[in-house]
Design goal:
The protein is α+β, with helices and mostly antiparallel strands and 165 residues long. Helix content is 35%, strand content 18%. The protein has a single domain, classed as endopeptidase fold (from Nostoc punctiforme), CATH 3.90.1720. The radius of gyration is 24 Å and the shape is globular.
């Protein structure tokens, strides 16, 4: 049996109900696929950036390095967040200026942690991992590594933290 289209739009009976259900199913099937965790929620950009940074552990430090094979501290952060879809400025001081401040007690994996170098302005940045740890590109001759915020160098120079998303 064929039902005229105008009957589907003006009807209040079972034909309209079947039409609405079929249309809803069709539209749901056409919605864009989103990667993420079960339940349809995508991981936050900080977690995604952290995965990228951790994958670069062992890459050599190079002043001005922006990856993917060598990094300085802010280059590692900018590269990692760019892979997660967020563009950040180039230097640690510029990155510090654009993040939303986060108290140390509220740090989440993927947040940025900032440090003073030579007693001056912000000059170093890393990506917080959790459990008082961070990933950073330390200095000439070093490699991207996991470090502890409890280490003396980081503890004495800690400025603050922020979330760039």
């Amino acid at each position: 049996m064929q039902v005229p289209a105008r009957a589907l739009f003006s009807s209040t009976g079972p034909s309209r109900l079947i039409f609405v259900a079929a249309l809803s199913a069709l539209l749901a099937a056409c919605s864009p696929f989103q990667r993420g965790t079960p339940g349809g929620t995508a991981p936050n950009p900080g977690a995604a950036a952290l995965v990228v940074a951790e994958s670069r552990i062992g890459a050599p430090y190079r002043y001005g390095g922006t990856g993917p094979d060598a990094f300085d501290c802010s280059g590692l952060v900018a590269y990692s967040y760019a892979q997660a879809g967020i563009m950040l400025p180039r230097t640690a001081a510029q990155q510090y200026a654009v993040v939303t401040p986060v108290p140390k007690r509220d740090l989440r994996p993927g947040d940025l942690v900032f440090f003073r170098v030579n007693g001056r302005d912000v000059g170093h940045v890393g990506i917080y991992v959790g459990d008082e740890r961070l990933v950073d590109a330390p200095q000439t001759g070093g490699k991207v590594r996991m470090a502890s915020l409890e280490d003396e160098w980081y503890r004495e120079r800690y400025v603050g933290a922020g979330r760039p998303y």
